[in-house]
Design goal:
By secondary structure, the chain is α+β, with helices and mostly antiparallel strands. Helices cover 40% and strands 25% of the residues. The strands form 3 sheets. It has a 6-stranded antiparallel beta sheet with strand order 3-2-1-6-5-4, with helices on both faces. Strands 7-8 form a two-stranded antiparallel ribbon. β1 and β2 form a beta hairpin. α1 packs antiparallel against α4.
C-alpha cells in the first residue's frame, strides 16, 4: 500500500530493462488540468507541472498515442523548458499514456535517452507492461483512498451524533462504540470493545440480547421505545433503541 515506494521500484525497473538514462511518471491533476511529476529519476526539483496538452507528455496524454522520438529537439511538440530548468539534455524519448481498465487516462510514463541508440519495438512492449502495472497500482491506491475517506466520513458522523452507536460483528463481538454510546453506558472503550454483546448485556439487559437475535433471524430493523437500561454502576437510564443489520457488498 506504499504507493510511492511501489512506483519508485517500477520506474527504476523500467529504466534498467529499457537500458535508458532515466524515467518519469507524470499524473494528471483534473483540478488544474496539469500533468505533474509523481516520480522523476535524476531530478532534484521537488515537482514539475505542465499543462496537460503541452510538450511530448501533453501530446501523448491528450491523444492517447505512444510517442517514440529519435531526436527530441527536432520534434515541434517538444518543450525544452524542463531541460533548461534541470540542466538535462533530452535526446530520445519513449512516452506512453497510462490508461485504467475503464479507458480513463491517468497520466503518462516517459523514458529518456536510450543508451546506444533509439527505443525499439521491444522497448515499447516492455514499457506497455510496466505502464499496465502502474495503472493497477494507481487504481488500487485510489480504491484504498476511497475506503479511507468513507471510513473517516462514517467516523465523523458517529462522533458528531448524539445517539449512541455500537457495531457488532457476526459473532456479536462489539467492534466500535462512539462517544455518545460510551457516555450512555458510562464506560470507556477499553472496558467495552472486544466483548461479546450477548455476555455484556445478558445479566441485566436481556431484552437487548433478544432484540439482536430477532434482527439476526429476520434481517429487519427492530425499534424498542422508552425501555430501562441497567448500567454497570448499578443505576438505570431510560432509552430508545434501534437494532438493524449491517449488510456487506455481497448482501
Amino acid at each position: 500500500l506504499n504507493l510511492d515506494e511501489l512506483l519508485k521500484r517500477i520506474i527504476s525497473a523500467t529504466t534498467d530493462l529499457l537500458d535508458a538514462d532515466r524515467s518519469t511518471l507524470m499524473i494528471h491533476d483534473p483540478k488544474t488540468n496539469e500533468l505533474w511529476s509523481r516520480y522523476a529519476e535524476g531530478i532534484n526539483i521537488t515537482e514539475i507541472r505542465i499543462p496537460s496538452s503541452q510538450g511530448i507528455a501533453g501530446a501523448v496524454f491528450t491523444t492517447g498515442q505512444i510517442a517514440n522520438i529519435a531526436d527530441a529537439y527536432q520534434d515541434p511538440r517538444f518543450n525544452p523548458e524542463v531541460d533548461k530548468r534541470t540542466g538535462y539534455k533530452t535526446e530520445t524519448i519513449l512516452c506512453m499514456p497510462i490508461v485504467n481498465k475503464a479507458g480513463e487516462k491517468l497520466g503518462v510514463t516517459q523514458v529518456l535517452n536510450k543508451r546506444g541508440g533509439v527505443f525499439t519495438a521491444k522497448d515499447v512492449d516492455r514499457l506497455a507492461a510496466f505502464t499496465a502495472q502502474i495503472s493497477v497500482a494507481l487504481e488500487n491506491a485510489k480504491l484504498f483512498e476511497d475506503v479511507l475517506n468513507e471510513k473517516k466520513y462514517n467516523d465523523a458522523i458517529q462522533k458528531s451524533t448524539s445517539s449512541g452507536v455500537l457495531t457488532l460483528d457476526t459473532n456479536d463481538k462489539i467492534l466500535t462504540a462512539n462517544e455518545a454510546a460510551l457516555e450512555i453506558l458510562q464506560l470507556d472503550q477499553q472496558a467495552l470493545l472486544g466483548l461479546s454483546a450477548q455476555v455484556f448485556f445478558q445479566q441485566h439487559n436481556e431484552w437487548i440480547c433478544n432484540s439482536i437475535e430477532r434482527v439476526k433471524q429476520t434481517g429487519e430493523q427492530e425499534d424498542v421505545l422508552d425501555t430501562e437500561l441497567h448500567l454497570a454502576n448499578g443505576t438505570t437510564a431510560s432509552v430508545n433503541m434501534s437494532a438493524m443489520p449491517l449488510i456487506d457488498v455481497s448482501n
